[in-house]
Each structure stands twice: as structure tokens, then as C-alpha cells.
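Hi Prof. W.,

I finally got the glycine oxidase prediction working! I wasn't sure whether to trim anything, so I left the full sequence exactly as given:
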Amino acid sequence: MEIVIIGAGIIGLATAWRAAARGADVTLVDPDPASGATAVAAGMLTPISEVTYGEEPLLRLGLASRDRYPAFVAELEAQTGRDTGLRTDGTLEVAFDSDDLGYLDDLRRFQESLGIAAEVLTGRECRKLEPMLAPAVRGGLFAPQDGSIDPRRLAPALLAAAEALGVRLVRERATAILVEHDAAVGVRTEGGEMRADKVLLAAGSWSGDVEGLPPGVVPAMRPVKGQVMRLRTKIPFLQRTTRGLVKGSPIYLVPRADGEIVVGATQEEMGFDTRVTAGGLWELLRDARELLPGITELEFAEVSAGLRPGSPDNAPVMGPSALPGLYLGIGHFRNGILLTPVSADVLAGALVDGTVPEVGRPFTPDRFGANEFEVTK
Ligand code: GLY
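And this is what came out:
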């Protein structure tokens, strides 16, 4: 079976690897692999903290994906000899003031209502785990099974593993889906055309930009900007991923073994704007310093802004579209890295075996009504 995947972000890369492992002949089309949201993402594996009430199916998907990570990474690292920076030593969510603590208590009740135990910590217990936390921190929740991974290591490892299984990377922009007799039969790129049995559209926020899509096939994607800062430390500063609520404002810090600390993120609906702004960085530093006053001593390394691909209901859209031959792997919004292993399994299952695995069924494209689709361009 010949499959063309439009987009070599984390979802396209992982699906290429998984589909090739099932015997498919896969081509990835992307002028600059892993350069979009994947390159900016911090890589938190914290399924609880990214969902809200009413998003239980998404939480279940996130938990399933988090639990697949160790085996997924073990296979990938064994195949490529590359380290992906996976950490499974738990994450901390802390509250700065009493209102923040009230929110955290609501989160704990929500977790418990779903049968997920949370370890409740006092401020002192939080500081025992993370001594650099401010004395003001009121309390927290410890999630022992959560962790993080470094997307900038994961993506090249996935590409190397995919290429070792025969996946081809075409460094060109896909301009159109080729449609014949009401079915997708391939992709047009800047350099020519390629035919395929199946086409997977996994181009993140840009998924609506490809020509040839009939109306009602791809739900409208909404780019949601996130500004992220990278700092560096030579001395131990933060042991584990720490999320905080500071006077109602969310912040997270993700430390890596090499001393990098990723601080994120703004959430801005500004269309395709990836400018880094003084105000965005100020908000991140302001909240990070409230939680960890010593943070201003760390070396500044990088700032960047990425576009999270948001679907109409903020959940991923995975599986066969209304156009025969065209599959969608889009809309991973705030959860792309977390959802990588499960999405790759769901999409490779749908593409190669022709069935969407059980865990992916709430996320198939047919859940949307007509007004949530883009008009053909
Ligand atoms: N999942 C983190 C973010 O989207 O900022």
C-alpha cells in the first residue's frame, strides 16, 4: 500500500514510522520537517492538566498515550540508538495564592471523579520536592506517572527510524490533493505529482491550505499562538516538570537533563502570527519569577512562538475523511506531543488495516456538523 503523508510534524513522523512498520510504502512531504509547533513544544506528558470539564474522552486518550510512551520510546531508542529525553518521574502542579489553591482543589475533585488519584501536597511538601519554589506557594498536586519528553530529540529520532524502514522524505510543499472520480489519488507538490492509495493530511494549522479539498472534508483549523522561552542552568534548579497557577495565570516549566528549562506558554488567537512579543515574554517571566524567584539568574537561551492546531472542539481529528482515500491527522491543539504514540497507532491502524482502533473512535472526522468545515479555497 502506498501512503503519502502531508506534514512531517510530530504526528506525521510518528504515523510514517508506525505505518512503515506495518508494511506500507510511505512518503512524507514537508519542506522543513518538525519545524512548526513540534519545534516549539515543551513536551509535557501531563494528561490531567490540559483537559477541562466535559473533555473526558480526551483525557482518556491522553492517559492511554502517556501509558504507551515508555514502550514507544524504548522501541524507537533501540532502533535508532538516539536518546529522546523521556522522563517519567512525575510532575508537580502548584498554586500560588488561595484562589489558585481553590482552582487546584477543583482539579483534584475532577480527577477523583474520574477515578484518578491525586497526591495532595502542602506548600512545604512542594518545596521539599522542589526547593527553589517560592515560600508563598500554597500547595500542590503531584502526578507520579506524568513526565516529559524533548520534542527536538523525539522528532529526529522518529525521522531516522522511519527512514530506516524505507520512508522517503520529499522536502517540498504539498500544494494540492489530487482528486479523481470523487476520491483522493495523490498529492501535487511544488516539484510534481505523486500518486498514492491513501493520503494523510497532517499539516497542523496549515491543513486547510492545500488545494483540491472538497467542501465538508476538513474541519476548520484555528492556529493558537504559544510563546515559549528557553533558559539554561549549570546548577540543579528544577527537578521535574512544574506547572503553576499564579494569580489565575497558568505557567509551566519543563527541565531537561542537559540543563535546559522550557518556560511556557502564552495562548493567543492571532491567526498565523508567530512574532515574539515583549508582553508575551514579560508575562512568562513575571509568573515564572513569582513561582521560582531564582529564575532570573538563569542564562537566557531562546524565545520562539508556535501555532497549536485547534479543531472546532479542541480535540484531535483522526481517521478517514468524507473524501475516500483522504485521511486526517490534525487538531492536536495543546496535546500533540502527549498524543503522539496513540495517534500514530490510531492513524496507522486506520490507514493500513482499514479500521480505527477503539481508543480513537471518539475522534473521527465524522463527528462534525457541516458548519464546522472549511469552504474550499
Ligand atoms: N501543552 C502545552 C501548551 O500547549 O502550551
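DSSP finds eight helices and 19 strands in the chain. Does that look reasonable to you?

Thanks,
D.
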